[in-house]
Amino acid sequence: MAYLVKARVGRSQGAVIFWGLVSAFFASAFCYYYLENRSNEEKNRTLVDQVMILQGERDSLSSEREKLEASAGDTEKQLTEREQFLQEKENNLAQEEAQIEAMGTPAPGQQLAAQAAGVKKFDDTVRQIAARVPDADVVVRGGRPVLRVPNAYFFEPGDHQLKPDAQALLNLVAQAASGSASRFELRVESFTDSDGETTTGTDKPVTVDAWTLTAGRAGAIAHYLRDAGGLPFQDVIAVGRADFLPVEAGSTGSGRNRRIEITIAPAPSAFHAPEPGKILRAKPVVAGAADPATDNAVNTGSP
Q1: Phi, psi of 172 (to 5 degrees)
Q2: Whole-prediction pTM
Q3: Which of 2, 12, 34, 227 is the most exposed place for a label (fewest CB within 10 A)?
């Protein structure tokens, strides 16, 4: 009897252990799959967020692409219209050049080529001069070369008589400018500084007025270019600038502000004098008075 009781107790304890182990297994499995499921859900949410971001970027790129395609279409249309416009202008210019050539007048294209050749010839010469003259240089102003030479190379302080070396330099300038009389005029501008210049070599040095000095120097150079230099230009423009338009602020004495500038500029339209017999009116014409050009009475329309 005691044996049977012990056997039953042993079987009950085994069942309890068995079912305890089964319960622990299922609990562990449940915890594992629960935690795994939460991890997968977090991964899924992350992937969904990334997909949404990528979709937004894709939509943005698609929009940008559409805008670029539209812009490219507009640009291509504008380029086509511009090419057509330029082609029409070229055709019109070709027709005008043909008409002008048939009339025996140089075409505008030929005139521009001749002007460019004249500017290049002048530019080459003045750069060679600047390389040989101390402190001289060439600057470009308005697309044209400007030879800039210190006053000391041309004149003594306070004087406007040309030095011999300056005359040789001006001969080179005249040669470079020759052959362009119908297209350019030669401009000579003289500058000093705010201190003015005092004559030397005399018992009583005199400070010369800046305007008088620069005007006299520009005129002396212009006279030499036109007379001794044999320059075939219709006009040689001489300008005295006194101490205006300095190169360096505060530069005095033998500074760069005391200088001569020589350049070429497109010649203006020729001046045409009034025809003989034509009189320009200086006063208003009174109604009923005789017109001095026609000797007829003028009718103003008033009764």
Answers
A1: -65, -40
A2: 0.53
A3: 2
Q: pLDDT tens, 255-302? A: 788 999 999 887 776 555 556 665 555 555 455 544 444 444 444 443
**Dist. CA 199–CA 48, nearest whole Å:** 94
Six token digits for residue 226: 């036109």
Q: How far apart are CA 262 and CA 191, in angstroms?
A: 12
Contact in structure between 285 and 298 (CB atoms under 8 Å): yes
Rounded CA separation 136/149 (Å): 5
Q: How far apart (Å, rounded) are the C-alpha atoms in residues 81 and 11?
A: 103
**pLDDT given at position 162:** 92
Write out the two tokens for 68.
């670029």
Residue 287 Cα distances to 87, 291, 295, 296, 299, angstroms: 55, 10, 13, 11, 6
Cα–Cα distances (Å) from 22 to 13, 32, 33, 153, 213, in that order, read: 14, 15, 16, 117, 122
Which positions of the chain have pLDDT values less than 50?
3-5, 104-106, 253, 285, 289-303
Q: Is 4 exposed, middle or buried (0-12, 13-18, 19+ CB in 10 A)?
A: exposed
Q: How far apart are CA 211 and CA 191, in angstroms?
A: 9
Instruction: Return d(Cα 200, Cα 158) in angstroms, integer.
Output: 7
Distance CA 172, CA 129 (A): 8
Residue 280 has a pLDDT of 54
69: Cα within 13 Å, side-chain hemisphere = 6
Assigned CATH for 111-266: 3.30.1330.60
Residue 252's pLDDT is what? 54
pLDDT of residue 278: 57
